[in-house]
Amino acid sequence: MSLNMQVTPVGSPHRKKRLDFEEIPDAETPKPKRPRLSLASGFFPCLQSLAQSPSVVEQDSRILQIGPYILLEPREDGHSYTAVHRHTETEYSCKVYPARCYPETTAPYGRLPPHPNVAQVAEVIQGDQNVYIFFPPGRGDMHSHVRRCKRLPEGEAAALFRQMAGAVAHCHDHGVVLRDLKLRKFVFVDRARTKLVLENLEDSCLLSGPDDSLADKHGCPAYVGPEILSAKNSYSGKAADVWSLGVVLYTMLVGRYPFLDTEPAMLFSRIRRGVFSIPDGLSPKARCLVRCLLRKNPSERLTAQEILLHPWLASGAATSEDSCKTPSGERRLEQVVPDTWSQKDEEEEEEGLQS
C-alpha cells in the first residue's frame, strides 16, 4: 500500500557553507558528483513507514510526534533532535534527512558490522518528505569536552584517541571513508566520559573496491588535508581521514587547532605548507604520533590500523624519553600560533568545506 500523507518537515537539512576556491590556483579541480548508492538488500529490519503524518503535541509547534517518538528541541546543527519513545520513555538522538537522500544516507550503516565505538542505528522511520534515523543518546561530544577542559592530560587523551582510531580503522577496513571527520563527530556514551562512539556516518563515502581515490573536496576547513586543497585529480580518502585524526589528536593535547587563521585563503595556505608547532610539554611519543599523522605527504602517514600499534597508544600515554624517528628531511616545526581556542574555531567546526 502506498503512502500519500504529507509529512511535516521537522527541520531543514544542514547545509555546509561553500568556500570559494578560486583564490587558490592549484585547487581548481572539476568535482564529479558521487554516484547514488543503492540500499543494501535486507537492510534495516527496523525500517518503518509512517502510518500517519507527524502530529503536533499539545499545540506546541516545537514538539512533533514521529511514530512512537516525540521529537523535542532541535540541536545546533538544525537536523538533529532529542527524541523520547512515548511508551518506554527511553531517550534517543534523531537525525532528519530528506527522503530522497535515504539510500545514500543509510547505505554506510548497512556496510559496517557492529563495533563498540561506532553508534548503532536503533530505528529508521521513513515518511514522504523526510527520513528519521534514531540512535542511542550521547552524553556530550568531544569538541565541547576539549573546549571545557582546554587540553586533555595525555593519559585521558590516549584512552579516548585509541577508541577514535579504532572506529576509523573499522570503517576503513570495510570500505567506508568518513571524509568529514572531526572532534564533534565523537560523543560520550557514559557519564564518566570514558567511552566514545562515532556518532554517525554522515558525509561518508562507500568504496567499491581497494582503490580509495576520491575527487570531491569535502570536509571541515580546520581538519582538511593539504592534498585536498592542492590535488589536481584525486587523493586518498583514507589518508585524508588520518590527517583529520591528526588534527583531532593535536587539538586534544594542545587545546587549539594546529592550523589557524581568520581568513579561509590564509588558513588553506598554512595547511598546504603543513608547518605547525608542538609544545615542549608533550611526551616524545605523543609528539611522534602527531607528526606521523600530520605528514604533508599522504603516503608517509600511518594507516588507521597502524595508529593502534603506535607505542603511545600501545602502552598508554608515554612519558619516557625514547623518541620515534621521523622521515629524513622533515622540516622543523617552528611556526608559532596563538595558544587560544577562539570563537572563530567554533565557527570553523560548524562551517563545512564542500565542492
Structural category is alpha+beta
Cα distance spanning the termini:
39 Å
Radius of gyration: 21 Å
Enumerate the spans where pLDDT stays under 50 for 5 or more consecutive residues.
1-53, 55-59, 318-348
Average pLDDT across residues?
77
Biggest pleated-sheet summary: 8 strands, mixed
Shape: globular
Number of strand elements = 16
Strand order of the largest sheet: 1-7-8-6-5-4-3-2
Quick summary:
The protein is α+β, with helices and mostly antiparallel strands and 355 residues long. The protein is built from ten helices and 16 strands.
Explain what the structure shows.
One of its GO terms (cellular component) is nucleus. Residues 33-313 form the Protein kinase domain. One of its GO terms (biological process) is positive regulation of proteasomal ubiquitin-dependent protein catabolic process. InterPro entries: Kinase-like_dom_sf, Prot_kinase_dom, Tribbles/Ser_Thr_kinase_40. Keywords: Protein kinase inhibitor. α3 (154-173) packs antiparallel against α5 (237-254) and α5 runs antiparallel to α7. The chain is globular and about 55 Å long. The protein has ten helices and 16 strands. It has two domains: 25-135, 2-Layer Sandwich (Phosphorylase Kinase, domain 1); 142-354, Orthogonal Bundle (Transferase(Phosphotransferase), domain 1). It is of the alpha+beta class and 355 residues long. The chain has helices at 102-111, 142-149, 154-173, 226-230, 237-254, 264-273, 284-293, 304-307, 311-314, 343-350, and strands at 47-49, 55-57, 60-66, 69-74, 80-85, 91-98, 123-126, 130-135, 176-177, 186-188, 196-198, 205-206, 213-214, 218-219, 235-236, 353-354. The relative contact order is 0.14. β2 and β3 form a beta hairpin. Strands 1-7-8-6-5-4-3-2 form an eight-stranded mixed β-sheet, with no helix packed on it. Strands 9-12 form a two-stranded antiparallel sheet.
